[in-house]
Amino acid sequence: MKDVKVLVVDDNKLVLDLIVKGLEPHCEVRTAGDGADALLKIVDEPTDLVLCDYRMPGLDGRQLFEKLRERFASRPIPFIFLANRSDIEEKLRPMVDGVEEFITKPFFVHELVRRAKKVIDRLQLEKLQKASVRPGVIQGRLEEMSMLDLMQSIEMGQKTCKLTVRNGGNTCLIYFASGQCQDAKLGKVEGEPAVYEAVRWAVGEFEIDFNSAPTRTTIERSTTGLLMEALRLIDESQQAVPEGQPGTTRN
Fold it and tell me: Do residues 154 and 175 both lie within one domain?
């Protein structure tokens, strides 16, 4: 699923190519070699997200941001800045509101992709919500958007909703309030253990109902804390597979 359009702006072609290769599996990527080129491309064809270097000849990243904010059509476009630490702290963060992320240079591409993907997933969720047939309800498949991506997007968007996930004959209900997981039920299993089981599901269907809210609290951890613990448990179970069984290797 590549419904989200991202414009990557950088005057360094090597950096531009590395970022594009990292993002391509997750979104539709366009590129611009400088701020002026980016502005023309956005006027011609709006984008969902701009990932932009700060220091560029001519129209720099901050000037591009300000020009986009001056136009009604481009004002809501989320922005991610790439800049060195001193530029972020002295020139960008104090004066720029509405930026999704500041990513410090130099950076590892996989870390940039991880942080950008959180924004991309949230935007994907918003697109699904707008396109939903039933008001306030969106549906999809886990093969297109994983449990990890879904829960992170709900948390980042600070959504209050009910997430229903189906895998075979199993159904898990997870309730969120302002992005934080409050309650979960999977058959007779409730609370955190229900979430840990559902996070393992790689295939199935999901439905998010923004008309529903939790009525009780069975979970104390934050959504991020839940996901970290779920990943730890998955990793622990994979390491515990007996030797000679699928998933193990011999030296």
Answer: yes
Output the pLDDT for position 125. 85
End-to-end CA, the chain:
38
pLDDT tens-digit readout, 70-79: 888 888 999 9
Q: Angle CA(170)–CA(172)–CA(178) in degrees, nearest 5?
A: 165
**Residue 245, domain member (yes or no):** no
Residue 160 lies in a domain: yes
Domain boundary among 101, 125, 149: 125
- Quote the Cα angle for 121-126-127, to 5°: 95
Q: Is the pLDDT of residue 243 over 70?
A: no
- Please answer whether residues 103 and 115 qualify as being in contact, where contact means their C-beta atoms are separated by less than 8 angstroms: yes
Question: Could you list the residue range(s) of the whole structural domain that residue 164 is in?
Answer: 133-238
Whether 250 is in a domain gets the answer no
Which amino acid type is present at position 142? L
Token digits of residue 120:
């991309």
In this predicted structure, the answer to whether residue 29 has a pLDDT above a threshold of 80 is yes
Tell me the C-alpha distance between 107 and 19, whole Å. Answer: 11
HEC letters along 107-155: CCHHHHHHHHHHHHHHHHHHHHHHHCCCCCEEEEECCCCCHHHHHHHHH
| Rounded CA separation 248/133 (Å) | 45
Give the strand pairing for 137-141 and 101-105.
Answer: unpaired
